[in-house]
Amino acid sequence: MKLLLRRSERSSVLGKPVYVLEMRAGLSEEERGWIQKYKFGPSFLYTKKGKPTGDTTTWTGIGQNLLHYAMDLTVSVNDLVNGKKIECKDIMEMLAVEGQIREAAQNFANVLRAASQFGGEEVIEL
Fold it and tell me: Domains in the chain: how many in total?
């Protein structure tokens, strides 16, 4: 498995910079087969959720909560297979997300390696 990352920048409607991280996994046909066989697709690799900030007794608070939930971020195996874009408000946030995605992708690569060993033996020299 290979992790393909692309960073770019665009301007928001208000002219502020928006930093975009695009990700996609480069997978062999064998790895794609394991993902389908073991139904890994819906599994979350990365989730970023915060606490709601708005008061749910006012329209403003309800709006703030809806905005908060819209800004939650999840990355599943399917997202990695099909590709996903994540927009960040600053470079530090983008780098933090990128680091978490790299770690999650490495862990998932280990899962795929383990899946390849089912029905066989592995010799580990100590």
Answer: 1
- Please report whether residue 82 resides in a domain: yes
Asked whether residue 110 is assigned to any structural domain, the reply reads yes
3-state secondary structure the chain: CEEEEEEEEEECCCCCEEEEEEEEEECCHHHHHHHHHCCCCCCEEEEECCCCCCCCCCHHHHHHHHHHHHCCEEEEHHHHHHCEEEEECCHHHHHHHHHHHHHHHHHHHHHHHHHHCCCCCCCCCC
Evaluate whether residue 56 is within a structural domain.
no
From first to last of its 126 residues, the chain has per-residue pLDDT tens of: 999 999 999 998 999 999 999 999 999 999 999 999 999 999 999 887 655 555 656 656 555 554 444 457 889 999 999 999 999 889 998 999 999 999 999 999 999 998 888 877 777 899
Taking the model in full, what pTM does it have? Answer: 0.74
Residue 58 belongs to some domain of the structure: no
